[in-house]
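Lecture 7 notes: from sequence to structure.
We start with the chain below.
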Amino acid sequence: MHPMHKVAVTTTAAAAAAVLIAAGPAAAAAHTAEAARTAPAAAPARADVDAAGAAAAALKRYPGVVESIDKDGAVWHVDVIGKNGKHAELTVDTRSGKVFTENADDDGDDGGQNKAVVASKVTAEQAMKAAVAARSGQVRSVEWDDDDDNGSRYWNVEIQSGGKTVNVHVDAASGKATVSGSDSDGDGDGN
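Predicted structure tokens for the same chain:
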């Protein structure tokens, strides 16, 4: 090999190496930007099923009218009065939204409570919305209350708000929500 060719080959190799070294960070940045564009978007944080979601899931499984909803750990207990007049006790998993039927039977309804719930102008779902509008927070339970002493019918909605449990009564005929009190320690006993 001629000495001049040796210098040309060495110079070309050095120049190529210099280009690769210099382009390395830029090439790496371009590769990273391309990977970011083509990578799947991060999955949004998964939210637990709330009371309204539990009611909707339960009614999809067992069509009818919600009588009560209560959160117990990782499940919602939802009582539904079916279109067939039968009472069903369902559980809804707070993570997956899966619905399980615990019990479905004709409970006799001697007191006519089922008929009163079904005939109510305000549903449990509407009562939840009215209660949260009156006092912001997360619904922990909804229960039909038929006060025999004065003949009033309302939904008792328990809301977790700022570390406190607040009870909101929603009139079953008018939908008017009244904040009735709070339980500062969250144990449900009002003390």
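Points to note: Residues 170 and 177 are 4 Å apart (CA to CA). Helices lie at 3-38, 51-61, 113-119, 124-134.
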